[in-house]
Write a structure and sequence with these properties.
Blueprint: H1 6-33, H2 72-83
Amino acid sequence: MADVPKSKFNAFWAIVIALLIIAGVWAFFGDAFSGSEVPAEEPQPPSTEWTTAPEGGVEVDLPETPMRAAEPEAQQQESTNASGTE
């Protein structure tokens, strides 16, 4: 290799590196350029019905308490008490 000019040697390695980069990009993005796009599966909305308890589950007896809207002042006071500032 002593008789090969340095500029040709540098050009050879530049071409090798460029080909490696192109091969890496092609391997990584190959599916994106193939044109065969797989249709995305539509997400199913969550069920609005309650499910049954699993076998061997723990029995829980929750009180039948009606839900009601909290007053805005009470919510604000609870949030300041929770953070430790008054």
